[in-house]
Amino acid sequence: MKHIVEIVTAADAAPEDFANISIPDHFRGVVVRADEVNMFDGLDTASKDPRKSLHIQEVPTPEPGPGEVLVASLASAINYNTVWSAIFEPAPSIAFVKRFARMAPQYAKHDLPYQVLGSDLAGVVLRVGPGVQHWRPGDHVVATAQVTTFDLPDGHDDTMMDPTGRAWGFETNYGGLAELSVVNATQLMPKPAHLTWEEAACSTLCNSTAYRQLVSHNGAAMKQGDTVLIWGAAGGLGAYATQLAVHGGAIPVCMVSSPEKADIVRSMGAELVIDRSAEGYQFWHNGEPNPKEWKRLRNRIRELTGGHDPDIVFEHPGRETIGASVFAARHGGTIVTCAATTGYDMYYDNRYLWMSLKRIIGTHFANYREAWEANRLIALGRIHPVLSAVYQLPETGAAAYEVHRNRHCGKVGVLCLAPQEGLGVTDPETRAKHAAAINRFRRN
Fold first, then answer.
1. What is the pLDDT of residues 94-114, one digit of tens each?
2. Among 29, 62, 190, 318, which residue's CB has the most CB atoms within a 10 Å radius?
3. In this structure, what are the phi and psi dihedrals at residue 358, rounded to the nearest 5 degrees?
4. Where are the membrane-spanning stretches (predicted)?
């Protein structure tokens, strides 16, 4: 593995160097184990500790099958799906892998007594399987997380509609939190040349998800002048949504939970910010929804916007906020949701939906085209990574714990094969132009 690191991090590595690389029989990966899925039984969600369930383990190296690529993972990142896998909620993700393994003969290798996690990756192509035409060893890449067979007609207008679609590193094995990873060729995109490995790795999942949810015609189709309420605007997902809104000519109303996070979103160009902790919103009281607080939030939004209700609500907390989101959206407005980090059991008052002709749109991650466009905005320096902290691979449990406890801003990165931070930049001129924005979350 040391030999691979030397070649993939060398500035003068030639194609023949990669062709002659000897691939090791084993590599280290961050795993959950099938025999531990009941380890947290009887505990509430908050008490489940990813540091106990995430392990570093030696994993046999698989051969890339047809359409697959073996990638040296230089860096990855923590997503909420990593936390869900680590606490085995809402169901053990290793059970999803077993179903995936039955979809096609080439996926049978994923059915193991452990699951290598991670839905983000920045790295270097080492080997390509049969039929791969557009990628070659030595290419610097990032990976989007959608895996699909493309065998059914359902997904050929929008691949996210393909029923065979799975989330790589959550519903599959061989994810990005490892020294080596296996991806489909249709997951790969060029790494933004002005970013380090860890910066590039932190953007693929959340930026693409925010793009589909907010910008794409498959989501809210945001336009210039739209007022957009963004929950968790300084978090891994919301921080990309905030940038997309600002640079897309919309008017974000950013919900945050501390003065520090308020400063961060203002530094991204957002002017309308609500610190929900300081203003004491309690959307639930004694286990019951609290419509008075929904109204108080709507009045606060109107105060900031000059009387305008949100055209779009960027939803992802779920149970805690959905009632307020439906209530606060304007007449004919759109609530677009991609997750439920505070709980899947939703409550909203349907009168405020149907009588005001509002709509709720569900979105999930992004198709390849949406991910490609979102990555292109990163490469152009229009949207910037939101990396706030970086951990070593053996510290992944601690990194996931921080995300689980919501003690982070932006995204938390993990170095895999990269021996240190700061490597991988091949366009220093572009980096110099955007250094302050790239490091915004690190400074805070």
1. 999 999 999 888 899 999 999
2. 29
3. -85, 170
4. none
Give backbone dihedrals phi and psi of 432, rounded to 5 degrees, phi first. -60, -35
Please report the beta strands in 79-155, taking only residues with DSSP state E, as ranges in sequence order: 114-116, 122-128, 140-143, 146-147
- Name the nearest CA neighbour of 422 among 247, 172, 200, 241: 200
Could you please state the CATH topology (level 3) that the domain comprising 224-362 is classified under.
Answer: Rossmann fold (3.40.50)
pLDDT digits over 36-50, tens only?
999 999 999 999 999
For the beta sheet containing 359-362, the strands, ordered from the edge strand earlier in sequence to the opposite edge, are 272-275, 251-256, 227-230, 312-315, 334-337, 359-362
pTM to 2 decimal places:
0.95
Token pair 């002709």: residue: 357
SS3 percent helix, strand, coil of the chain, rounded to 5, is 35, 20, 45
User: Phi-psi region for residue 184, left (φ > 0), alpha (ψ -120 to 50) or beta?
Assistant: beta
Q: Same CATH topology for 1-207+366-439 and 224-362?
A: no
End-to-end CA distance of the chain: 35
pLDDT in tens, 17-75: 988 899 999 999 999 999 999 999 999 999 999 999 999 999 999 999 999 999 999 99
Residue 407 pLDDT greater than 90, yes or no? no
What is the fold of 1-207+366-439?
Quinone Oxidoreductase; Chain A, domain 1 (3.90.180)
Confidence of residue 138 (pLDDT cuts 50, 70, 90): very high
Would you state the structure tokens that stand for residue 338, as one six-digit string? 């991609």
pLDDT tens column, 213-228:
999 999 999 999 999 9
Domain residue spans of the chain: 1-207+366-439, 224-362
